[in-house]
Amino acid sequence: MAPITAAITGVAAYTPDYVLTNKELEQMVDTNDEWITTRTGIKQRHILKGEGLGASYLGVQAVKKLLEKTNSRPEEIDLLICATATPDMMFPATANIIQYEAGLVNAFSFDLMAACSGFLFGLTTAAQYIQSGRYKKVILVGADKMSSIVDYTDRSTCVLFGDGAGAVLLEPNTEGYGLLDHVHYTNGAGWVHLHMKAGGSRRPASHETVEAREHFVYQEGANVFKHAVVGMAEASYEILERNQLSSDDIAWLVPHQANKRIIDATAQRMGLDENKVMLNIDKYGNTTNATIPLCLRDYEARLKKGDLLVLAAFGGGFTWGASLVKWAYDPQV
What we know:
Blueprint: E1 5-14, E2 18-21, H1 22-26, H2 33-40, E3 44-47, H3 55-69, E4 79-83, H4 94-101, E5 108-112, H5 118-131, E6 138-145, E7 163-173, E8 178-186, E9 194-196, H6 207-211, E10 217-219, H7 221-242, E11 252-255, H8 260-270, H9 281-284, H10 291-299, E12 308-315, E13 319-326
Family: Belongs to the thiolase-like superfamily. FabH family.
Protein name: Beta-ketoacyl-[acyl-carrier-protein] synthase III
Subcellular location: Cytoplasm
């Protein structure tokens, strides 16, 4: 028998209606459109408004769209994995809430946290359940409400992040399509450069932590940028070398959308022309775990069965890596 691989058989995404532009940010903090665009490539980001709406709301919308698009019944789904850095609450898992509200009555579910690399690590995790032969339909959703942990008085971070969710359906394949290889890395020494200071068990919420504004993203931009450029670029190059591939063999680079300069450096290390790079950071900013599936959704009509894709990400922790995927279907009309 041919080996079983986990193939992506559908992709969907959701972004909130409200759009926060660079021009609007100019009225909130000391920044301007030219500065943001030049340094990050971001022009706008989507923000989730509404009392009591969290990452699960975003994820539910993406999952429902995916079910409809792939003609899948909710009860057919065996497993739901949610990659998130902004869970609705410490417990239960945000995946459990999505599972319930999307009607996935036969699926078990759990969260996976690896900062901005969560979707990439989640893809590898989901694939193991398919490749084992145990499950037939697995949904991986990346969902983040980054606006909930962004300090809109901090001009160095508030320009970067947006809210959104993206989901993929994974199914068994015996024709060589799907996830073919991956390289994943972590280096816990990097936590000091990018984290949220309070709200966990080490430093629980208190009047002091709230007053000190410690429940927001803390980032040492220069350090993170330096490590991200090297990490994403080298992992992407490594996945080519491991599989005896050249840039000519790759149809698309699907990079985490954190900063256009990081994306450009990764493409250059791989020897890829810019017309082979998925880019939508200008529309959404950094949606953390939603960036890669948002790219797949936006570029789906340009993907062809058999295309080789390199997915790459870098996140706080530090976490980073790259995956090689052989696309399993032609554009859906």
